[in-house]
Amino acid sequence: MRPEILFPLFAPVTELPGVGPRIGKALEKLVGPYIADLLWLFPTGLIDRRYAPKVAEAQAGRVATLTLRIGAHEPPPTRRLPYRIRCSDETGELTLVFFHGRAEYLQRNLPEGETRIVSGRLEEFRDALQIVHPDLIAKPEETEKLQEVEPVYPLTAGLTRKPLAKAMAAALERVPDLPEWLDQSLREREGWKSWRGSLLAVHRPETEKALAAGTPERERLAYDELLANQLAIGLLRLHQRRGKGRSIQGDGTLRKRVATALPFELTTTQKTALEEIDADMASNRRMLRLLQGDVGSGKTVVALLAMLNAVESGAQAALMAPTEILARQHHRTIEALLQGTDVRIALLTGREKGAARQKIFEDLASGAIAIVIGTHALFQEDVAFHGLAFAVIDEQHRFGVHQRLTLASKGAAVDTLVMTATPIPRTLTLTLYGDLDVSRLTEKPAGRLPVDTRLLPIDRLDEVVTAVRRAMDKGRQVYWVCPLVEESEVLDVAAAEDRYAALKAIFKDRVGLVHGRMKGKEKDAAMAAFVKGETRVLVATTVVEVGVDVPTASVMVIEHAERFGLTQLHQLRGRIGRGKEASTCLLLYATPLGATAKARLKILRETEDGFQIAEEDLRLRGSGEMLGTRQSGLPLFRIADPAHHEALMATAYDDMRLFLERDPALKTPRGEALRVLLYLFERDAAAKYLRSG
Ligand code: ADP
Ligand code: MG
User: Fold this and answer.
1) Mutate to test the pocket of ligand 1, among 262, 264, 398, 548 (most ligand atoms within 8 A of CB)
2) Ligand 1 lined by 264 (C-beta under 6 Å)
3) CB distance 578 to ligand 1 below 6 Å
4) What's the predicted TM-score (pTM) here?
5) Cross-strand bridge partners of residue 151
6) Is the minimum distance from the CB of 547 to ligand 1 under 6 angstroms?
7) Would you state the pLDDT for residue 326?
8) Residue 445 near ligand 1, beta carbon < 6 Å
């Protein structure tokens, strides 16, 4: 249960003064439902009101706080003109200007003949000084109301500066002193304040410098978050290890049969990876292994051969893919490879319904199905296995930690293999999984030709269409990718539909369309038509990004390439260059394109090395983008940024590993404090392993 000391922070934001249902909704959208969520919204700027000149010295363009005598009010003759109030001090005159000002309100707050403190941005208008809509108006005796340096927060629709500032101030007042969960010597070494002290300092920046990710205050809070995460992972791994693993050793018959039927030889690194996986499965320890291999390096076949090892020993295996298209493709590929064997496989996505779905559940529970391939539908509670021994999770960065681990809990001692094309740096894997073993596919299958990548401004679309026509005439197939329009799948799809209509006018029924809002059946049909070559151009949104494998496609056009992350472009481009023909990728960008943005795209022209590209991406855009967590709505961290806090990530890992060895039940005073931390960052799911342990 959540520790009582946190109750004030886990009340709804609507409990704060001034936060009604409307502002409450906007806040919830911006940060989340709880007051605690609001605390993690850090200022991104500040307004310094400490500049307090006399009128005669005041410089236009600056924000200033002035003490003024209020003079004559000049209501406008018509509504279109502003309401003006003449003010002065002993050195000069200044006008306050209000558009659509309400006379009654202004007379009450700025009564003629009195003195007021007024703050806002100074402007020069026809040689006179004015402030349009001052931010602050206070009586001289109310100076405590004036915040000399005001933090500026990112806003969202429906939320303005003042109510947010008010809500934040009230939230900060609720912040309790929490027991210290940090190791004393670390805290001293880093010179960190208490949690509360750091939080308050972050929300009260005095200078621009205080807004950087590298201040001791922000670093401490980032470390707290990383620590909570490592604690959660550590507890989970302890729990998993307590359960015994089981040794799995197939007799190799099925595997041999499938391997000989493959139209190619396994690469050396595929063989090595498979040996490593075999050794893990044979041991009594539970396996958790990451299989890293650039797009097109052939991870699927490794996964299949590993699954067969489990099947040979009489157990079940599951393969989970992040999208339905991918799950279906894996199912198709694997079904074909298993022809002539008696291994029963099934597909389970959101689309198998009714009696068919029920039958799958039954056959999984009885053990009649040996291999199941699916989407996250595999996690759901009704899915029970007879004896799941091996779980593969494809393109893992699309899933949350929680999801990754639920699949493993569907069997008594499940060995897990996660596969990714993103070459995640070691510190980041520690952050995602704690310690885990890694196998790498470092070679591409033989015979792959490099992709010729070119950059073109989008206004040269005519040339692109001509090039596409030429390619089609030569019998080649083309992916035409339309970009993600920010935060709007609807607009996204509209853009793809427009492009589809335009290309259809030119290429007639040789064009297909696939996007995320289509019904499952339509999607399948569109993909199938493209695979069979009935359509030659496939207009698509980023649904084709991950894993789709159509070897005969050798041209890719990507519209608005500048809107994509480099890793994402690399993934997309990985869809081509898989066949015998040389492939071409055209990156179309909107003009004008800044020098940095262009340099970024040029990296893709220069290299096909996923690792180099990912490093560049991490440097340029931060880990959320690189891991695709932002698109999938699974932010890893709210404060910590793996691009900035790499050293802290490693320290947090070591810290929790050592600590849990000594106090796995969190019984010591530091353990008690860490328990509070776990709940503070809502890593509660891990707390259940505490109780049961
Ligand atoms: P990814 O690692 O991106 O998931 P896939 O598993 O989809 O890659 O494999 C890409 C393509 O390469 C598939 O068509 C697959 O059949 C083929 N392939 C896999 N291994 C080899 C190999 N050793 N030699 C030649 N082709 C291979
Ligand atoms: Mg794949």
Assistant:
1) 264
2) yes
3) yes
4) 0.69
5) 46
6) yes
7) 84
8) yes
Residues in the chain predicted with pLDDT less than 70, given as ranges, are: 145, 243-244, 396-407, 425, 484-493, 543-547, 618-636, 691-693
CA 585 remoteness from chain centre: 26
Distance CA 373, CA 390 (A): 12
Q: How far is the CA of 295 from the centre of ligand 1 (A)?
A: 9
Q: For residue 321, which ligand has an atom nearest its CA?
A: 2
- Quote the CA–CA distance of 669 and 673 in Å, as a whole number: 6
Three-class SS of 423-465: CCCHHHHHHHHCCCEEEEECCCCCCCCCEEEEEEEHHHHHHHH
Nearby residues of 60 by Cβ (< 8 Å), 6 or more positions away: 122, 123, 124, 129
Q: Write down the pLDDT at residue 322.
A: 82
Task: Residue 322: count other Cβ atoms within 10 Å of its Cβ.
Answer: 22
Q: What pLDDT, on a 0 to 100 scale, did the predictor assign at position 630?
A: 41
Return the residue whose CA atom lies nearest to atom 25 of ligand 1.
Answer: 445
- Rounded CA Rg of the chain: 30
Task: Spell out the residues 6+ positions from residue 316 whose beta carbon is closer than 8 angstroms to its own.
Answer: 310, 364, 367, 369, 370, 371, 372, 385, 386, 387, 388, 389, 390, 411
Question: Could you tell me the distance, in angstroms and rounded to a whole number, from the CA of residue 83 to the centre of ligand 2?
Answer: 65
- C-alpha 553 – ligand 1 centre gap (Å): 15
Q: pLDDT value at position 439?
A: 92
**Sole residue written with tokens 């009101």:** 49
How many helices and strands (H and E) does the chain possess?
24, 21
pLDDT value of residue 684: 76
**Structure confidence at residue 635 (pLDDT):** 55
The reported pLDDT for the residue numbered 465 is: 95
Indicate whether residue 551 lines ligand 1 (CB < 6 A): yes
CB 1 within 8 Å of CB 683: no
Domains of the chain: 4-46+155-212 (no CATH), 50-146 (2.40.50.140), 253-441 (3.40.50.300), 451-607 (3.40.50.300)
